[in-house]
Amino acid sequence: LLCPMPEETVDPVVVSEDTNESKNENEDQTTNVSETENETESEPAADPSDVEAEVNAAPEETTSDTNETEDLETAENATVEENTKENAEQSLVSNEQSPFSMLTPDIVIRIFSLLDIPDLVQFQLVCQEWFAYCRCDTLWGALYDTTDWTLSPPPMELEEATWYDLYRLHYMKEMDQLNTEYYVEEEEDEMQVLYNLLQTNEAVTPQKLRSLLEMEDFVTSLQNGDDTVLTFLEMPSTIVAMMDLLFKEDHDLENLQNQRIVHIVVQTLVSGIITDVFIINPDLLDALFDQLDELDLRAPGAATKGGCVAKIISILFEKFTTQIISHLAGRDTFIPTLLFNIHDQNLMEILFKFVDCDLSHQWLCEAGLMTKLISLLHKDETLENQENAANVLVNILGLCQAWPQSVLINDMLNNEVITGSILAYMESAPMTAESIKLGLRVLIGILGLISDELEDPPVVVSLLASSINFFAGILQNSGDIDNPEPFVTTTGPIEKGFGFVRLGILELLVSLLYTGFPVVVEFMLEEAVFTVVLDLLFQYPWNNIIHNQISQLFSGLFCCNNPEVIQAVLVDSQLPERIAGAH
Prior knowledge:
mainly alpha; about 0% strand; disordered N terminus
């Protein structure tokens, strides 16, 4: 490399013109500085006698002109010396730091071609001249041609693109393809592991199912409808494991992962493919209702379990109504299990869904639903159970009004056990305000089922009419049953309020009278009910609520189309005289 270079050099295509011009300028400056130094050294020193002769021969000038000329010459000499020194230093530095300045461009390119690509990229940062060499088309064109590419060249959008740009774009394309193949291969490996796990002959346990549900690939495949995953979930053993996971393991409400798993399992069980498996395989239905029988919904955290089983049964009943009714008709434990968990609103919604479908009324009547509900109105039960039973009964009675000819309604109206049990519940000692109010709510609901098409009074009307003396006695003297505290109104103090028990009895009497059966009026006349309620009207002159109930009683009386009965009531109660006396 240190041998003298030939005079004719190869002009490289890739080296920029700016670089060559910069190099030529540096060489010219170095040559000028050298010539100046040589001229300075070759000049002989001036003789003092000659200088004195020239000074004496020169014309005399003013002192000011002489001073200005000397100052100008001094400044010019200083500038020349400074430039000469600076150029000399630059020439020295250039020679010391750029040994490649002695080489031709083709030799430099040959040297750079021996570098690997990382070093070649780093050499671009040394200086502008090296940057030009490291980006030259000759170098990168040779590299591009000798590289084993697996993909076709990328399209070049720029017209002035260099071989360096083409190499970089092609390299990036190759790397993207390699990364894609790596991740696809890794994903395929994970899916293969998942498929192998699903196709094993091992028993499906809740633990194994939980581990699968924690895998994102499994959940994603389930959402995408992967055939292998769906086939695994359609297996009866898998469905049983999902139910065990829902109902036999504790639900941690603070664990988001656990909540997510529960949600996925429920959504899977109510999906179309799984519900079809339930109907095809009756053993799975038995397993579901067995899970319901074993649930303890009063345990901590069991509320979510009630919601899960209620949703599954609800979806099954909506899609396969007759099949579910037929299956439940053969199970004696379903209705008792629902009533045992009467406090759970989710299960009661299932019961209301059954009642709201007239196809299930025959089965519910044969299963003794209403009788079993009435049995909960017993003072041996907790007050909470009594209130829950009354609320459920009232809701069921409201739903049944849409089917006046239903066997379930007929059973309620003509079953002596039902009406007699309610009256016994109210009259049994010790009589309490709560038991009487709950019984009144249920009786009023039953009376609301009576249609105008009935010619003969049902059993409930006859039994209530014969018990009017019990209700009239409470109206006259509620005693300790309903003893509201005194309070002060805008009209003055009231020592004893009317009370909700007697208000409920007034509502019952109005409902009973508006059934339109003469037997009711006969018993009311016999027990002097109209006289009793008229006394209450004047005893509580400012109670508009009871005034409304009493006015409805007399309106029903005047509409009975029996002048003798109306005349007898007016005479016994002295209604016109009392109204006149009040004014």
